[in-house]
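Render VOC domain-containing protein in 3D.
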Amino acid sequence: MLKGFHHVAVICSDYPRSKAFYTDVLGFTVIDENYREARQSYKCDLALPDGSQIELFSFPDAPKRPSRPEAQGLRHLAFKVDALDEVIHQLTSKGVECEPVRTDEYTQKRFTFFQDPDGLPLELYEL
């Protein structure tokens, strides 16, 4: 039986910039980092305190992700937070722009979106 997500894989265009974003800005911890010479690619395993992970990859000449208008495939990645306004303040103080806060019409929970350095849509969802 499925028990939850182990990780989400993200391919970035600028590995040092994205690694800094996910560690310094979002607070992920590096579990393991490897350069794979045969692929000219980095693979970095990053974790949050609850054990959820992102695998950050770099591949030379990877095509850009179509995101707007919405395309088929993964729509966005949502992070759960306890205090939405506090996390928004932390992100904006580090230069990350967040969209206006909205309320989910079904759950009445508050949320907002922001982007990683490659424009990947990321969401903050208040518990």
